[in-house]
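Supplementary Methods, section 5.1.

A reviewer requested that the exact input to the structure prediction be made available. We therefore reproduce it here, unchanged from the version used in the analyses.
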Amino acid sequence: MNTYSLPNLPYPYDALEPAIDRTTMEIHHQKHHQAYLNNLNTMLEKYPALVEQKLEEFLRTPPTSVVNKADLNFFKNNAGGFLNHNFFWTILGPQKEIDEKLRGEVENKFGSLTNFKIEFTKTAVSHFGSGWAWLVRDPQGELKIYSLPNQDTPYQNDDTPLLTLDLWEHAYYLKYQNRRAEYIENWWTILKLL
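The structure derived from this sequence is encoded token-by-token as follows.
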């Protein structure tokens, strides 16, 4: 049976310093991301009929006829945690690789890159508890900013993720403790696409 594996980071663990320290990156990737993966693979062993289904499709339309109700939320959380982290690592980097098309769309939608950063930051700072802040494209092609709790994903809203910020404490607590706003401010320096 095919199961998922932990993707390698596209950069060394210390590449995002000083914004995110090496120890946080190692724990976040090797422990937290790995735990979502392990739980996901355990669920796939229990429900082998889902192995061929893309995780994005599972999250868009949970197979309630295949997965029992007790397992569905556990499966959703771990599939979401695995996918969210897979995506999160790819939009960060030690060097900017500006996506000019996305940048143009953001400036057109929000008036300027500065306005976008203000609105996205406000969404991230005001999110209560654990979760993620997102920039997404909805099915009509419109850009939207919102946050989601826990390991929920834009796929559940039929949206396509473009950018995300991990707001779980394990993403920043070793360096920033309760200073989430400082973590968010420094995240902009390692977001490589804008």
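The domain at 22-90 is CATH 1.10.287.990 (Helix Hairpins). These observations are discussed further in the main text.
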